[in-house]
């Protein structure tokens, strides 16, 4: 018999999903959005986000590895602009990569974001939009900003499918919705 989990219902551009609630520390849960392999949801989100970010006239989309990559890819096709992925581990072929350290809300562990040397030159002086699936604490976003600043790119907007947590903190984020934090009562 399958295990039952608490879920949170969402709708993105007409596509409905029940997100599993995940305990990140005792008494605190978040709804987990995993768009990997969910082509219907990714395409719907990209169609909805594209017109919201197009007026910023970006040259590139910039996203962290890995869950937001399908969204960046779909937006790239729809908008006719390329995307760059900041990797979470260094590979020797990346050359003189730029890096920034962040803290992951889902793992609670530090993570490092790396911009491949080849991508440093393509984003230098360009207008970029930072893109993620969910912006929760803002630490990944801060890491993306730091790397783009080091690379000489101009961040013109920040976007996600959802923001999470303190809604007021994310007023300047282009998002399709907001996810609450679930605090369990004793």
Précis, in short:
This protein has helices at residues 39-54, 69-79, 117-123, 139-151, and strands at 7-12, 15-25, 28-31, 60-64, 83-86, 98-103, 110-115, 127-135, 154-164, 174-179, 182-183.
Q: How many strands in all?
A: 11
Low-confidence stretches: none
Q: Given the helix and strand composition, which structural class is it? A: alpha/beta
Oligomer kind: single chain
Order of helix and strand elements from N to C terminus? EEEHEHEEEHEHEEE
End-to-end Cα distance, whole Å, is: 29 Å
Averaged pLDDT:
91
For the record, the CATH architecture stands as: 3-Layer(aba) Sandwich
Q: Count the domains.
A: 1
The CATH topology is what? Rossmann fold
Q: How would you describe the shape? A: globular
- Based on CA atoms alone, the radius of gyration comes out at 17 Å
- Our estimate of the beta-strand percent is 35-45%
> Strand order of the main beta sheet, please?
5-4-8-9-10
3D architecture notes:
The chain is of the alpha/beta class and 186 residues long. The protein has one domain (39-178): Rossmann fold, CATH 3.40.50. Helices cover 25% and strands 38% of the residues. The chain has 4 helices and 11 strands; from the N terminus they run βββαβαβββαβαβββ. The strands form 3 sheets. It has a 5-stranded parallel β-sheet, with helices on both faces. Helix 1 crosses helix 2 (69-79). The longest helix has 16 residues, at 39-54. The radius of gyration is 17 Å and the shape is globular. The two termini are 29 Å apart. The model has no long low-confidence stretch (mean pLDDT 91).
